[in-house]
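Pipeline run #58 for the internal structure catalog. This entry was flagged by the ingest filter as a single-chain record with no existing model, so it goes straight to prediction. Upstream metadata was stripped on purpose; only the residue string is passed forward. Reviewer on rotation: M.T. Logging verbosity set to normal.
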Amino acid sequence: MNPTQQGSRAYLISIVMVAVLGGLLFGYDTAVISGADKGLQAFFMGATDFVYTDFWHGFTSSSALIGCIAGSALSGLMATAWGRKRTLIFAGVMFFVSAWGSMYPETMVLPEGKPTFTLLVVFNVYRVIGGVGVGLASAVCPMYIGEIAPSRIRGMLVSWNQFAIIFGQLVVYFVNFFILGDHVAPAIASVGSGMNQLLNGGEAAWAVSTGWRYMFGSEMVPAGLFAILICLVPETPRYLAMTGQEGKAERILARINGEGEARKILADIKATVAERRERLMTYGFLCIFVGVMLSVFQQAVGINAVLYFAPRIYEAMGFGNPMALTVFNGIVNLGFTCVAIFTVEKIGRKPLLVVGSLGMAAGAFGVACTFGNPQLQLLCMISIMVYSASFMFSWGPICWVLIAELFPNTIRGQAVAIAVAFQWVFNWIVSSSFVPMANIMGYWFTYGLYGVICILAALFVWKLVPETKGKTLEDMSKLWKKA
């Protein structure tokens, strides 16, 4: 049978698999610092022209977030001006440049292997460049998949992007483990006033001089693959129609949906892009507010307090092998992300978000009530797992699904950029506040606060978030005009 009459599922899946590589790079880039952390810190502690304090290490560990905020803020302008495909190509190049520069920040100009303040600045510039790639990919990959996918399976396909993010984090944990191999990670002790000393410098020499470089450089492989493969996929039909390339749009729609369905979809697209210079607030304040608050709640529920600091948390709980539990947690996260992938089109977006919010609240309150009690150590660990797993089948993937499909065609680029920029801002707020809040107020207060926010998130979804299951992207214009 002619695939242009029925549509080709294989063609659609191949496009989506290339696009989700951007999600994998998102996860890879944000998690690579976890393995390189101590080696990098020990390397710059050897500088003689400045003192590498805890402040500088904290800044260096999180500098990519600056690029994430900038990249997500620029994503709307770039996706509208350049198109979704070209923006993703640019993101792939940013990933590759960052991986190379983070591995070899001397770039054949500065003295090789000599830690200096100038080298630290250059290293952070490369990390910010990688962050720009992450920010662009985090906004445009779900947008691309949402605009290319048929409405009946759009939620499932966009959810694969979240799976790729978590998988990318898990991959880099293993890559870092194999790169370190039999070598010893440096042991660093605080000596007060933001100062540190290296305890096993001789034994950890390879990790300090070379290991962290290989960890950052390993990202060149998936980054190069993504930059090449994204050149082979088509631009989205929605963007092509908005830029007057209706013939190309119809051909791509026909290959995905079949000729008859393609004509109907294109007619709907043309009806919603007739006035393609619409302003951001054309569909009302509530449309933008819901999208932004979805992003805010996805971070404010505190998930990065687990994803970024899991080893620290399990160590504080008294477990002897925190890294083993962290890897196990990552595997659990992957499994529960699959729950969302295979149920989002059956159950819907809102039920998953509400149930996930309540599950996270139960887990967070469980941690708050049991943390620090040796007799309840196992229950505390289970509470952490419930908290994390509940996020993975709800706010993790479903937030991206809704952000990709919630906004009308004519404002999607701008609106997604604003929503995702808020997401990265609150990512930074949660990540930077967790350790001091836990140290000063205690884990009971910290996780109790996250539990309360989870309850507020459930109420927000129940009252304000529309159900988009089964609706076309063109239906979003009608939905918000009625609101």
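catalog note: The CA atoms of residues 2 and 258 lie 9 Å apart.
catalog note: The first strand starts at residue 188 and ends at 192.
status: ready for reviewer M.T.
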